[in-house]
Amino acid sequence: MKATGVVRRVDDLGRIVIPKEIRRTLRIREGEPMEIFTDSGGSVIFKKYSPMGELTATAAPMAEALFKEAERPCIIFDRDGVVACGGVKAEGKSVSSEVEKLMESRRLYQGDAVPLWEGGPQADIIAPVIAGGDLAGCVALLSANGKGSPEDMRLAKMTAAFMAKQMED
Q1: Residue-level pLDDT at 147
Q2: HSE of 70 in the Cβ direction (CA atoms, 13 Å)?
């Protein structure tokens, strides 16, 4: 565990404020779900909760199937980073601010290729995964020669809908 040197008091409602600098660094957004862990030594650990992360066993074969059907690499992201990929190695990568903005628009994107992370590959189709009205992540098809086809868009949208359905069930 890394010490930050920041000390906060618990208020009368049991709340602790996470400093803005830490929220910004860890990309913790207002309303974001947090998991709480404790250990026998009295430590309390907050971890960002990702419902998409819980679906890795489902997302990995789905990404491989999408890769084979669309005949181009794909990556399934939660709101912060890679959950699964097909046809490309991308484990441990964080989502770029450009992709984050496209995800938050909650609309299917097809257009100029955008980098998926700093210095990484680019995608020209990004389909948001929206489960229970909440944005959970996206499905990105990496750029091919030219623009993606309408069929590629449908495949990405279908994959995103499937992932959303898995989270809702």
Answers
A1: 66
A2: 33
